[in-house]
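This part of the workshop introduces the protein records we will be handling. A record pairs a protein's sequence with a compact description of its fold. Backbone structure tokens are a discrete shorthand for how the chain folds in space. The question running through the whole workshop is how a given chain folds. The record below serves as our worked example for the rest of this section.
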Amino acid sequence: QVQLVESGGGLVQAGGSLRLSCAASGRTFSNYALEWFRQAPGKEREFVAAIRWNDGSTIYADSVKGRFTISRDNAKNTVYLQMNSLKAEDTAVYYCAADRRISSLSAQYWGQGTQVTVSS
């Protein structure tokens, strides 16, 4: 059974930093991308960042480029999202996902989400 378990969310002031973790288990993800999406209250879920498990290549949404960094630890089967210079508009539930495609809202696997709240 595939599981994606997020952690690391919380409350932070604008300009601060948080690091989210996503522990993946239940299958090998060698041909998958591990991704982060987010959903703010009253808004649609949106793509944030992705990393391809095989080669570590990354892609980011324009709204987070230069502020967020996605990375992976193969030995721990864990993906991280380092979030710096946080803004109030980054407030959302952040979801980890895994899929063979990038930025698809129909990703095959999803975590339960972790809340990030940025106070202004």
About this structure: The first strand starts at residue 3 and ends at 7. DSSP finds no helices and eleven strands in the chain. The two ends are 40 Å apart (CA to CA).
